[in-house]
Design goal:
The chain is an alpha/beta fold. It is built from 12 helices and 7 strands. About 45% of the residues lie in helices and about 10% in strands. The strands form 2 sheets. Strands 4-7-5-6 form a 4-stranded mixed β-sheet. It has a 3-stranded parallel β-sheet with strand order 2-1-3. Strand 5, helix 10 and strand 6 form a beta-alpha-beta unit. Helix 9 packs parallel to helix 10. The two termini are about 45 Å apart. One of its GO terms (cellular component) is membrane. This is Ionotropic glutamate receptor L-glutamate and glycine-binding domain-containing protein. GO terms for molecular function: ligand-gated monoatomic ion channel activity.
């Protein structure tokens, strides 16, 4: 190892790749800032190497091959082309046999990115204040009240003029006003009006709440277990980079393997290809699996951070 440490990086972000090529960039990113601070303190020179430009490597942190050698960034480190990898990568017992990790600076999680989900708001949003069952009850109640009123009017008209033809009787029945009847009928009308007033106030309150609340997204799953169910039913599928490892916990590793056997992972070498899997592949859209907190440009477009509602317990 020379006094000039060769540090390999990947330009995963456009801003970061533009920034680390500039010697005086104010905000080069978390990894580069840590490297600058450490090497400034110990007084050692270093050079940041873009492995994609220098060696033509694809998105590959390092995977152990059948012959025992490593691919990607770890492979470059083993071959002596790099002295250090300047990226945050997942620690594993297999990788620890080949490289020496620094103190962990990040926590890796399982994050799913999907195509932009649609809003749950429909064109019939005016009916969303009440559920379908409530609307059916309201309609049945109105029809029942109207039928009772018609029955009351029919009895009174029938007793008033028994010799009138049935056709004329039905015309008078629908034309008769309830105001000409007794107090008992008016009391029934008052009860109906009061119930209508309460119902209208409840509807108005619910509509105000519905219109003022933020729109919700129709996300196909709310947890990793539900995501596995969706993939198992082949409504969606996983897509990942060629040598990317799908992380799992002891609670769901067996389920992961079973689901992937039934619905294999679609893999690609470039982020553009991954994005095409997610957005343009039909008839089912892709579901990207990302095993880190920080991800590329497409993640911010595909799924905003405040929509990441996956349960951490899964």
């Amino acid at each position: 190892m020379t006094n000039n440490i060769r540090i390999g990086v990947m330009p995963l972000e456009k801003d970061a790749s533009t920034c680390f090529e500039l010697p005086n960039c104010k905000h080069p990113g978390a990894e580069v800032e840590i490297l600058k601070m450490v090497y400034r303190l110990i007084g050692v020179n270093y050079t940041i190497i873009d492995v994609w430009k220098e060696f033509g490597e694809v998105y590959d942190f390092g995977a152990k091959q059948a012959d025992g050698n490593w691919s990607g960034m770890i492979g470059l480190l083993q071959k002596g082309k790099l002295d250090m990898i300047g990226l945050s990568m997942r620690m594993s017992s297999e990788r620890e046999e080949a490289v020496l990790f620094s103190y962990p600076t990040r926590v890796f999680e399982s994050i799913f990115l999907i195509a932009p989900p649609s809003f749950t708001c429909t064109r019939q949003f005016i009916f969303n204040a009440f559920s379908r069952t409530v609307w059916i009850c309201i309609i049945v109640t109105v029809l029942l009240i109207y039928s009772i009123l018609l029955l009351i009017n029919y009895v009174k008209i029938k007793d008033y003029d028994k010799e009138k033809p049935i056709s004329k009787m039905f015309i008078d029945l629908f034309a008769t006003s309830i105001q000409s009847f007794t107090v008992s009928s008016r009391a029934f009308l008052l009860v109906t009006l009061f119930a209508t007033f309460l119902l209208s106030q409840l509807y108005q309150t619910d509509m105000y709440a519905f219109l003022s609340a933020p729109l919700k997204y129709d996300i196909p799953f709310q947890s990793i277990k539900q995501a596995l169910d969706v993939v198992e039913k082949k409504k969606m599928y996983f897509t990942a980079f060629e040598n990317q490892t799908l992380l799992c916990t002891p609670n769901n590793c067996n389920r992961f393997e079973q689901v992937i056997k039934r619905n294999p992972v679609r893999r690609a070498y470039r982020e553009k290809e991954i994005t095409e899997f997610i957005l343009f592949e039909l008839p089912t859209r892709g579901l990207r699996y990302q095993s880190a907190i920080i991800f590329g440009n497409c993640s911010a477009v595909l799924l905003s951070l405040h929509l990441s509602v996956l349960s951490s317990l899964d």
